[in-house]
Amino acid sequence: MNEPKIYISVPADYDKPWKEALSLYFEQFLSFFFPAIHSQIDWTQPYRSLEKELMELVRDSDVGTQFADKLFEVKLLNQQTVWILIHVEVQSQTDPEFNQRVYRYNYRALDKYNKPVVSVAILGDDSPSWRPTEYSYSLDGYRLRMEFPTVKLLDYQSRWQELESEENPFALMVMAHLKPKRRTGR
Questions:
Q1: How do residues 127-164 score in pLDDT, each as one tens digit?
Q2: Helix (H, G, I), strand (E, B), or coil: what is residue 168?
Q3: How large is the angle between the packed helices 26-33 and 15-24, nearest 10 degrees?
Q4: Nearest to 170, CA basis, from 34, 21, 35, 15
Q5: DSSP states of 29-72 as a string?
Q6: What tens digit of pLDDT does each residue of 35-60 get?
Q7: H helix or E strand, kind and range, residue 147
Q8: Is 72 within 8 Å of 106 (Cβ atoms)?
Q9: What are the residue ranges spanned by the domains of the chain?
């Protein structure tokens, strides 16, 4: 007697490969996605991954299981030391709390370590219109505003040939993320 085949749909875990690639290829990440920031860093100086500091921010946070993905310390060409906080949202849905979360981790790092922090984000969702770039609120003359650069992976859909000829490992990461969407026509 033949056993019926059972197919289980397992959601893709996009976070882990991105986090590993960020750890291995941080300079290439900034070069590919944020060239303006990359050009201000003194790459002759070693950079540091700040896993311990990031885990302290996560542990002290009250935002549940969501957290920033990577934190690095770099030296700029002007000799200033800054921290770069990277948020990778490689999920299939938008997140209405995302802007506030980016702000929250940014100010927590500034408050806890008294270091300048630059937040950047990679958005891997399916919504062409969801493009968070700031967190702000105001009341009767008071205004708080934080802007942060984002990259939308969907924007690379029309640049497939360019990605194929690119040697930066993040071109391959983008292609791997977009490949299922190309098959389904989304």
A1: 999 999 999 999 999 999 999 999 999 999 999 999 99
A2: coil
A3: 110
A4: 21
A5: HHHHH-HHHHTTB-TTSPPEE-HHHHHHHHHT--STT----EEE
A6: 999 999 999 999 999 888 888 877 76
A7: strand 142-147
A8: no
A9: 22-155
The whole-angstrom separation of Cα 169 and Cα 90 is 17
Q: Which amino acid is at 162?
A: E
pTM of the predicted protein model: 0.83
Residue 83 CA to residue 106 CA, distance in Å, equals 10
Amino acid at 107: Y
Q: For the residues of 73-117, what is the DSSP string, one character each? A: EEEBTTS-EEEEEEEEE-SSS--TTHHHHHHHHHHHHHHHH---E
Q: Residue 172: which residues within 8 A CB-CB, separation 6 or more?
A: 163
Burial class (CB in 10 A: 0-12, 13-18, 19+), 145: exposed
